[in-house]
Amino acid sequence: MRKSHKLLKPLVACFALAGLSSTLQAEEQPLMVDIKRLSMESALTIAQATIDQCRKEGVQVAVTVMDRGGHPQVVLRDVLAGDLTLNISRQKAYTALSFNMATSDMEGRFTSPFSVGKVDGLVMSAGGLPITAGGTIIGGVGVSGAPSGETDEKCAQAGVDAISDELEMAAF
After folding, report:
1. What is the pLDDT of residue 22?
2. What element of type H or E holds 67?
3. Of 40, 59, 75, 97, which has the fewest beta carbons less than 10 angstroms from its beta carbon?
4. pTM summary value
């Protein structure tokens, strides 16, 4: 009996390690993940449709379409849009992307002196929208240059709407 007892301990330890090993393997994360991104053509379609809508409104603007990493993918500035509109459209796109919500929904949200809204590069005024596909954020669009943020946002929405059906179909 003593001899079998000695063999039993290492056998139990082997089974315990095997169980632990399979548990660790089940919890491991993959080395890489697939991330959906806008094609350059899709980003350009959004930007051009945005400019077209603003022209219908009688205004000239700058539009920035960002990828999900927060990098500008397409930037267009209409002929008479001011230089400052480039920076503001970028910041609106980045803000909408970062918070996954329209920047108009953030107006007045961060009012304390040391709140998130005071971080450089964020703009909490209308004109920025997230770009989503299948419930996943894939980018952001920001518009600047119209007399009101509501017009900026209307133009941004026209840009997103220009490919929203295709984005939803491609998400699945």
Report:
1. 52
2. strand 62-67
3. 40
4. 0.78
Q: Is 13 exposed, middle or buried (0-12, 13-18, 19+ CB in 10 A)?
A: exposed
Find how far residue 110's CA is from the centre of its chain.
Answer: 20
Please name the residue that has the structure tokens 């709140």. 115
Q: Is the dihedral of CA 133, 135, 138, 140 positive or negative?
A: positive
Radius of gyration of the chain (CA): 25
Q: What stretches in the chain show pLDDT beneath 70?
A: 1-26, 110-119, 171-172
Superfamily of domain 40-170: Haem-degrading domain (3.30.450.150)
* Continuous H helices in 28-161: 40-56, 84-99, 149-161
The predicted-structure confidence for 50-70, as pLDDT tens digits, reads as follows 999 999 999 999 999 999 999
Nearest 10 degrees: Cα torsion 159, 89, 54, 169 = 0
Which residue, 82, 79, 80, 106, is CA-closest to 92? 106
Nearest residue to 66 via CA among 123, 122, 139: 139
Are the CB atoms for 97 and 130 separated by under 8 Å? yes
Q: Find residue 144's DSSP bridge partners.
A: 62
The residues spanned by each domain of the chain are: 40-170
